[in-house]
Specification:
about 500 residues, alpha+beta, BirA Bifunctional Protein, domain 2, seven-stranded mixed sheet, three-stranded antiparallel sheet, 15 strands, about 20% strand, binds phenylalanine
């Protein structure tokens, strides 16, 4: 279509010479916009046409003018509402929103009169019938014959806001230096062949359209969780923490539970809370001496502890599972630290990765989530150090109001839940869990007596949902999410202090 129109225009100019694009509207029977569009395509091909912009001032109907065109002038509406026996003036004022203007105009025209002799003013007709000149004039304007009205009438209607001046841009076109009756196809790509053959010199190239919107790159998008993870990772790195290797979703019960002094009867180890593997169902390689010390501390205690006093079973520790927390990784790393060549050195570790729990799914729980975990091991660390490190960590996230509440974990003593004040939600919300690892966990690993380890963990989902205003976790992750939230979510900047 477009191509046809461009050629129609060229042909017309070839046969008739100079023309105003507005005059082409009736010739081709298309919108002026379309003609201007075709003209732009022709211009992109070079100087086929000479164009000169002209402005046409014209008169058009305002919205109110269009209403008058349809229903009659305000004064005619008022006149028509007056019955032969007359009507109370107050009732007449209710016939239309413009009744007041209509009333005074109809009075001025001498169409109606007001009889005040009988108390309430009554409006009566003064003439039998009227001619609605205003409406007739607007009909003329609508038909494109505004020039038929005299200047006073036009000025009056303009004052009454029935008419408005509109400016139409058009182009006077005539043959240009490179006139032709058809368009040459423009090259969009400069190829090596064109360069080699010298053809580029004779071809015409399409000009760059620097106003065009770019196409959306056909590439991957970062999930909000990954964006928030990057922010957390940067905070840890700024604080001098090193990342732990978390690339093992499958873990043995030994490292996930036993190493953490979590008794074998603990409810978290029930199949209702943990996903166990069927194949391979068991792990077989454990550091033997360490395993025996773990067995001993569970069954008989040691290091000043009474232990749990039960019959610790290897089979239970061998069971493979999907790790329920990244603290399993921390346990492996602390064991490694205790047994490395050269002995213990202070460390700061962190990890951010997936963990799995056999949960009942709801708006805030899925069977898997991401855990953010920080661990600091040094000689003579105290609870004050834990509180200080956590306060610093959350301060870097822009959270300054934090509180701690005593809690229980099998592997930490003391343990504390971390709460922070959410200014948006205007309440204290739980953001994490923390504690000092128990000697029953650390001493069997071989860590020196004076080494204490402080640690804390939180989920990545919760701050992400708050940051991106997502209320249901199923809108953030999983098969039911709207992919558009991945494609269009903003970059993440935590308001770090
Ligand atoms: N592992 C704990 C959890 O899953 C988090 C935690 C980590 C608590 C380290 C204390 C110390 O909730």
């Amino acid at each position: 279509m477009q191509l046809e129109l461009t050629e129609q225009i060229l042909k017309y100019v070839d046969e008739n010479g100079k023309v105003d694009t507005l005059d082409l509207v009736p010739v081709f029977g298309v919108d002026h916009q379309k003609i201007v569009g075709a003209l732009k395509s022709i211009e992109a091909n070079g100087e086929l046409l000479k164009t000169e912009q002209v402005l046409h001032k014209n008169w058009g109907l305002s919205d109110e003018g269009k209403e008058v065109l349809a229903k009659g002038s305000h004064e005619a509406v008022v006149f028509n509402a007056v019955p032969s026996e007359g009507i109370a003036q107050s009732d007449l004022m209710k016939v239309s929103p413009n009744a007041k203007v209509g009333f005074s105009k109809a009075m001025a025209q001498g169409w109606i009169s007001v009889d005040k002799s009988i108390g309430k003013p009554v409006v009566k007709r003064k003439v039998e019938s009227i001619t609605d000149t205003v409406q007739e004039h607007l009909q003329q304007v609508d038909a494109g014959q505004a020039s038929a009205l005299n200047d006073t009438a036009r000025a009056d209607y303009r004052k009454r806001k029935l008419l408005q001046e509109i400016v139409v841009k058009s182009f006077i076109i005539s043959k240009g230096a490179e006139f032709a009756t058809s368009l040459q196809k423009l090259e969009a790509d400069l190829t090596t062949d064109m360069l080699a053959s010298g053809l580029w010199n004779t071809l015409k190239f399409k000009p760059y359209n620097l106003d065009a919107l770019g196409t959306v790159p056909d590439a991957g998008y970062l999930h909000p969780l990954l964006k928030v993870r990057t922010e957390f990772r940067n905070i840890f790195l700024e604080m001098g923490f090193a990342e732990m290797p978390t690339n093992n979703f499958v873990e043995s019960s030994f490292w996930n539970f036993d190493a953490l002094f979590q008794p074998q009867q603990h409810p978290a180890r029930d199949a209702h809370d943990t996903f166990f593997l069927t194949t391979p169902s068991k792990s077989h390689k454990f550091p033997e001496n360490y395993l025996n010390r773990v067995k001993e501390v569970h069954s008989n205690g040691g290091y000043g502890s009474q232990g749990y006093k039960y019959d610790w079973k290897l089979e239970e520790a061998q069971k493979n599972l999907l790790r329920t927390h990244t603290t399993a990784v921390s346990a492996r790393m602390l064991y490694k630290l205790a047994n490395q060549e050269g002995g213990f050195v202070p460390v700061k570790y962190f990890s951010i990765d997936r963990v799995f729990r056999n949960e009942t799914l709801d708006a805030t729980h899925l069977a898997e989530f991401h855990q953010v975990e920080g661990v600091v091991a040094d000689r003579n660390l105290t609870l004050g150090d834990l509180i200080g490190v956590i306060a610093e960590f959350f301060k870097k996230l822009g959270i300054t109001q934090i509180e701690f509440k005593p809690a229980y974990n099998p592997y930490t003593e003391p343990s504390m839940e971390i709460f922070c004040f959410h200014p948006g939600l205007k309440k204290w919300i739980e953001v994490g869990n923390s504690g000092m690892f128990r000697k029953e966990m650390l001493r069997p690993m071989g860590l020196p007596d004076d080494v204490n380890v402080i640690a804390w963990g939180l989920s990545l989902e919760r701050p992400t949902m708050i940051k991106y205003g997502i209320n249901n976790i199923r809108d953030l992750i999983g098969p039911k999410i709207d992919l558009r939230i991945i494609q269009s979510n903003p970059i993440c900047r935590l308001e770090k202090s």
